[in-house]
Amino acid sequence: MKSLLYHNNGLKIYILNPDIPQEWFKNVNQQLSSIGDNIIDLKVDQSGFGDSQISFSNRLNTMTFNKLLLPRLLPEEKVLYLDSDVIINHSITALLNLDFSEPLAAVKDLNSPDSEINAGVVYFNNPVINQHPKIVDQLLPASKQPGLKNADQSVLSNFFYHQAKFLPRTYNYEVGVEGYAVYHHIDRIISELARISDPVIIHFDSDDKPWNLLSTVRYRELWWYYNGMSIRDIIDHVTLGTNKPRWSKLRGPLFCLTNSQDFSHLTELVTTLSDYQFEIAARTSMGPKLVSLLKYPNVRLYQGILPQVMADRLNCAKAYLDVNQGMKDTKVIRQFLESGKPVLAFNNTMSMAGND
């Protein structure tokens, strides 16, 4: 919600929930009143869903099915539904002003583009949907049918895929799918994601959420940037045009790709050079020795790092730390040297000539 408010103002935002206290809404609305936003408490009754979520993964619960009821729940003609695992990185005014006559507008799902929309961002055209009340009546019972591939997404797709207006992928950039696509070598998905460099709506649609202890997903830092905002930051941005500093003021970063938990003097480096950002990456899971480094605020761990993330971090790095023990990725180190940036090592960790 913070990212939405930061880039857009004068909004009416309904929060579907079963249990957020009334006081929270009062406090937030009091603070946002100066910029014209209104956050509305929309309580939903979960009992009507019964056991409709049993056949799906643990990350799904009945809350995700509530979007099926929006044409009946809300009086507005058009309603933009956003999953709770998205961030808004630009103005969505163009999307909100979209004129369309279809029942809904959405982006094709990356995994099933020929049969499903992705239900993380759905623009409902309520008057058109409500012209067919029998369809609305059928949505909730359909969610309880066995064999649904993707829960509420499959329900909406079964009813509306062939009547939908398809939106550009920038309005639902499924970055969460990237790890799956890389692991399974699905070049079509990798290429489609690579075509967009600055998406409007970023969707973390996998279990690899940016708020996990260790996650491989891109845009993790961006999620935490918005998470760390205060309401005051949002108001100042809207009224004064000020921007909350996006990136760390630490120097560096200093990057290392490792296949081992064993390092030479890494803790001493981290504590002595506390004004530098240390980025430690691995293509695999990380063990407890590396995870324990998270107690230092200038350490960032990249577990199971994805190729595009590693390319970005290597490009940003001011120096490469060749200080890990065990096998090295000499190709990565050599390419870093050839870029003209220094590779720093101890005598007992140096992997090739030319290191400083």
From TrEMBL:
Any Pfam family: Glyco_transf_8
Superkingdom to which the source organism belongs: Bacteria
Coiled coil spans: none
InterPro entries attached to this UniProt entry: Glyco_trans_8, GNT1/Glycosyltrans_8, Nucleotide-diphossugar_trans
SUPFAM superfamilies: Nucleotide-diphospho-sugar transferases
Cleavable signal peptide: none
Transmembrane segments annotated in the record for this chain: none
Single GO molecular function: glycosyltransferase activity
Name this protein carries in UniProt: Uncharacterized protein
